[in-house]
Amino acid sequence: MKREKVFLFGKRAYRIMGLGIALIVLGFILMSGGGSDDPNIFNEEIYSLTRIRVAPALVLAGFAVLVVAILSTKKK
What we know:
Helix content: 55-70%
Strand content: under 5%
Largest sheet: none
Structural class: mainly alpha
Shape: elongated
Order of helices and strands: HH
Number of domains: 1
Radius of gyration: 19 Å
Number of strands: 0
Distance between the termini: 24 Å
């Protein structure tokens, strides 16, 4: 008797989860950098609009997309 593999989520939910994870990774990539090699020199780039507003918004949107993917129902 061969047992069929049953996944917890449907194919659509896994695709939405992939999108959410991609948004989170993109947000963290946008947040990185902006530092200075010399600790005595201050770099104003750490306060850029991308690092302060856009990147955290992408991370939060990614987590929201993950919640939507988890709560979406499996189509039969």
